[in-house]
Amino acid sequence: MSSPLLQQLVEALRILPGVGPKSAQRMAYHVLERDRAGAGRLAGILAEAVERIGHCERCRDFSEQPVCATCSSASRDPQLLCVVETPADRLAIEQATGYRGLYYVLQGKLSPLDGIGPAELGLDRLEARLAEGGIAELIIATNPTVEGEATAHYLGQLARRHGVRPSRPAHGMPLGGELEYVDRGTLSHAFTSRAELT
Predict the structure, then answer these.
(1) Which tens digit of pLDDT belongs to each residue from 37-51?
(2) pLDDT tens digit string along 103-131?
(3) Distance of CA 38 to the CA centre of its chain
(4) Residue 10 sits in the same domain as residue 107
(5) Other CB atoms closer than 10 Å to residue 69's CB: what's the count?
């Protein structure tokens, strides 16, 4: 590749999930050959999003405001708190179920080998919310992976310490799968058939 700037563009595109060297090169060539205006819009929106989108102070989901629209909504049931690993998992639940409670987004899962412990997941803030009272059920919707199950176990113990009933979505969730990729019908059924975490 003759242009150092083009090489930098290709390398920058590789940060996206599932984008390898060939895909990144195709993307770079496409925007330079066929859609420079679109590339300019993408660059502008990306820069603005990185600058303005932070995390909600209550649930840790992405938000442009200190408290997101879900947390500030009066129509949500404050007695139900659903814990998910990622914003994509929260969106999957919103789109597939009739859930009307609140959320807490971990932005990951417990993984000591990767240096991700309770502090990195904001579990001190979650514990403070549980200690405030008013939450009757903690729905633990972490992915059914080894790390997700370990995280669920930890969260179940945390909930019980504060007199909150922990539950887990049931039926049809494949072991080793990820919520983001489960079809709507399966996720909806699993969510409405959740069981108490033992």
Answers:
(1) 999 999 999 999 999
(2) 999 999 999 888 999 999 999 999 999 99
(3) 28
(4) no
(5) 12
